Amino acid sequence: MITITLHYFASLREQIGRSQETLTLADSITVLDVWQYVHQTPLPDNTLIAVNMEYVERMHYICDGDEVAFFPPVTGG
Asked: How far out from the chain centre does Cα 21 lie?
């Protein structure tokens, strides 16, 4: 079993209705799989993902105790 903490920022936090949650899983899975497991929707395009404060790709595997943060794409000028 692994336990991770998910953090949501800016418009993702507003859409989801919370800034963080804790999740316990049977096995290590990818960040993309975590998103789809929790939200049952595709991960929005251009979403930035950080694991333990380092940017990662969608296929990055998470480990017990990891903190995963999702940041919406930044627009504007």
From this structure: 10
CATH number at residue 61: 3.10.20.30
| CA 1 vs CA 4, 28, 66, 74: distances in Å | 10, 8, 13, 34
Which domain, by its residues, includes 31?
2-71
| Residue 66, both tokens | 């990891």
**pLDDT of 15-55, one tens digit each?**
899 999 999 999 889 999 999 999 998 998 899 999 999 99
**Is 77 inside a domain boundary?**
no
Query: Is the pTM higher than 0.85?
Result: yes
